[in-house]
Amino acid sequence: MSASRRSVLRGLVVPLVLLGVWFFVTHAKLVNPLLLVRPDRVVTSAIKHYEEGAIVGPLLASLQRDLLGLFIGSFAGLVIGAAMGISRLTDRLLGPTFHAAKQVALFAWIPLLSVWCGTGELAKVVFISLAAFYPVVLNTHEGVSSVGREFIEVGRVFRFSRWQVLRKIILPAALPSIFAGLHLALIYAWLGTLGAEYLLAAAPGIGNLMVEGRESFQMDKVLLGVILAGVVGATLNTLATRVEQYALRWRVRGI
Amino acid sequence: MLQANTEQNLGAFEKAGPSKRPARSSRPRNGYLLAKGLGLLVPATLLLAWSVAAAKQWVPPQILPSPASVVDTLLEQVRSGDLFVNLGISLGRVVAGFAVGGAIGLLLGIAMGLSRTVEDYLHPMFKAVSQVPVLGWLPLAMMVLGIGESLKVAIIAHASLVPVALNALKGIRGVSRNYIEVAKVFQFSRRQLLGKVVLPAAVPSLFVGIRYGITQAWLSLVTVELLASSEGLGFMIVWGRQLFQLDLVLSAIIVVGAVGLLIDKSLELVESRLLRWRPRVSFEAQAAGALPSTTAGES
Amino acid sequence: MTQASSSLIEIRGVSKHYAVKEAPLQVLREINLSIRDGEFLSIVGASGCGKSTLLRLLIGLDVDYQGEIKVQGQRVVGTSLDRGIVFQDHRLFPWLTVEQNIAVGLENARFSAEEKKRSIAEHIALVGLRGFEKAYPHQLSGGMAQRAAIARGLINRPRILLLDEPFGALDALTRTSLQAELQRIWQTAGITMILVTHDVDEAVYLGDRVVIMQPKPGRIRKILDIDVAHPRDRDDTRLKTLIEDVRRQILERPAAD
Question: For A209, which of A182, A225, B84, C78 could close a Cys bridge (C-beta 3.0–4.6 Å)?
Answer without folding.
Answer: A225
